[in-house]
């Protein structure tokens, strides 16, 4: 089939959705499909780069406690119509289909099978509350709906009720297992790693407070902090005024360096405070074999299992966070069992497995439309055959 993956966030700038789109693109191609990525431009990017088609300009703005993107163009309608007429997609797969303005315009003009994946999770959202009234007609144009977790499904179903198939995010688990530890940090001092944006919902300040508790309790460790963001000045001030000399701010690192760090550390910590729909970083840590301490929040519970790959603690509780980290640093059998369990669990989320589930769901949606005589006019591929039923062994 010819498939268009629609990303409202700037591809390929870093981010969970754009990473998801990248791996889905690569693995759908490996499964024999003809795939394009539809996104916006940012800065001086070309309008077309191989299989990446750019429509409009993207601008960053606050969104869901973080930073999101909206895309605009004075020529959107003519650009979209030209692209759709030229490409003749069988399937258009939207990631966060209601983020303005690229996805809704493509959805309105589409004559293809429309499938959407919903990635976000949060509390009550005034944007979605208002948008649910405005976008209801657009939602009805979706032939299939995917949520990356039960938390994401619960969030979106509140505003756009419907049938949602849960298909999780994926991880390139083999890449993380091939990583090599950084010798610089292997000096006998245990290492704790944080990777994320420096913003309130990621919980970095709670982790810094936990690290201080560890020092007061006589637990020796080094905290490696990867990332950047609006709370960086506050975080550095906290470290300086408490004389926490064993905190290393590493800034933003490459994917290769990140893998090396995951392979180096004794504990990976994700103290997020909420609004996490899934937790891709937990998959990465597990794939690399890092024991995990994470917040006990909805989006994480479908990824790690309590006491098997991670210790889960309530958010906003630095003392309990410190106790969990201390336990993994001092209980070698427990840490070793998590190192062994993590890669096994991560393999369940490998991108070939996740992509196969997405591909199967495309087939399910297409067969349902075909049976009802409702296949859109741009669908010209063969209708995928239903998978063979699994026969239980005697």
**Remind me, CATH topology of the largest domain?**
Rossmann fold
**Overall form:** elongated
CATH superfamily of the largest domain: Glycogen Phosphorylase B
Radius of gyration using CA atoms only:
22 Å
Q: Based on the coordinates given, report the CATH architecture of the largest domain.
A: 3-Layer(aba) Sandwich
Beta-strand residue fraction: 15-25%
Q: Estimate percent helicity.
A: 40-55%
Mean pLDDT: 91
What structural class do you assign from the helix and strand content?
alpha/beta
The run of helices and strands is EHEEEEHEHEHHEHEHEHEHEHEHEHEHHH
Domain count: 2
Determine the N-to-C terminus distance.
37 Å
Low-confidence stretches: none
Largest sheet: 9 strands, mixed
Tally of separate helices? 15
CATH class of the largest domain reads Alpha Beta
**Number of beta-strand segments:** 15
Structure, described:
This protein has 15 helices and 15 strands. Helix content is 40%, strand content 20%. The protein is elongated. The chain has 2 domains: 191 residues, Glycogen Phosphorylase B (Rossmann fold, 3-Layer(aba) Sandwich); 175 residues, Rossmann fold, CATH 3.40.50.2000. It is of the alpha/beta class. The strands form 2 sheets. Strands 1, 2, 3, 4, 5, 6, 7, 8 and 9 form a 9-stranded mixed β-sheet that branches. Strands 12-11-10-13-14-15 form a 6-stranded parallel β-sheet, with helices on both faces.
């Amino acid at each position: 089939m010819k498939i268009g993956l629609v990303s409202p966030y700037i591809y390929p700038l870093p981010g969970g959705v754009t990473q998801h789109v990248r791996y889905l693109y690569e693995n759908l191609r490996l499964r024999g499909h003809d795939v394009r990525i539809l996104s916006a431009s940012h800065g001086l990017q070309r309008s077309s780069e191989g299989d990446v088609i750019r429509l409009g300009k993207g601008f960053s703005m606050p969104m869901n406690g973080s930073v999101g993107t909206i895309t605009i163009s004075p020529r959107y309608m003519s650009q979209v119509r030209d692209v759709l007429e030229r490409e003749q997609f069988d399937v258009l797969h939207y990631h966060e289909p209601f983020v303005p303005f690229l996805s809704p315009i493509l959805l309105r003009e589409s004559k293809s099978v429309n499938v959407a994946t919903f990635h976000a999770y949060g509390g009550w959202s005034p944007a979605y509350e208002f948008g649910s009234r405005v976008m209801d007609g657009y939602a009805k144009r979706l032939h299939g709906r995917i949520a990356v977790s039960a938390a994401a499904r619960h969030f979106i179903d509140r505003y756009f009720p419907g049938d949602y198939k849960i298909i999780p995010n994926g991880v390139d688990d083999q890449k993380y297992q091939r990583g090599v530890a950084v010798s610089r940090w292997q000096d006998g001092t245990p290492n704790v790693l944080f990777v994320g944006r420096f913003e309130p919902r990621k919980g970095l300040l709670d982790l810094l407070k936990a690290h201080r508790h560890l020092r007061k309790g006589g637990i020796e460790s080094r905290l490696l902090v990867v990332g950047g963001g609006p709370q960086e000045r506050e975080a550095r001030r906290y470290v300086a005024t408490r004389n926490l000399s064993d905190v290393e701010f590493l800034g933003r690192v490459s994917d290769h360096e990140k893998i090396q760090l995951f392979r180096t550390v004794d504990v990976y910590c994700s103290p997020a405070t909420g609004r996490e729909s899934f937790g891709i970083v937990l998959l990465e840590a597990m794939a690399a074999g890092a024991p995990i301490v994470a917040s006990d929040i909805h989006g994480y519970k479908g990824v790690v299992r309590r006491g098997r790959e991670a210790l889960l603690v309530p958010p906003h509780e630095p003392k309990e966070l410190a106790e969990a980290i201390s336990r993994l640093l001092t209980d070698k059998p427990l840490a070793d069992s998590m190192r062994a369990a993590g890669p096994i669990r991560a393999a369940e989320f490998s991108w070939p497995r996740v992509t196969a589930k997405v591909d199967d769901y495309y087939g399910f949606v297409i067969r349902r439309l075909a049976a009802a005589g409702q296949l859109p006019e741009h669908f010209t591929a063969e209708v995928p055959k239903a998978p063979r039923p699994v026969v239980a062994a005697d």
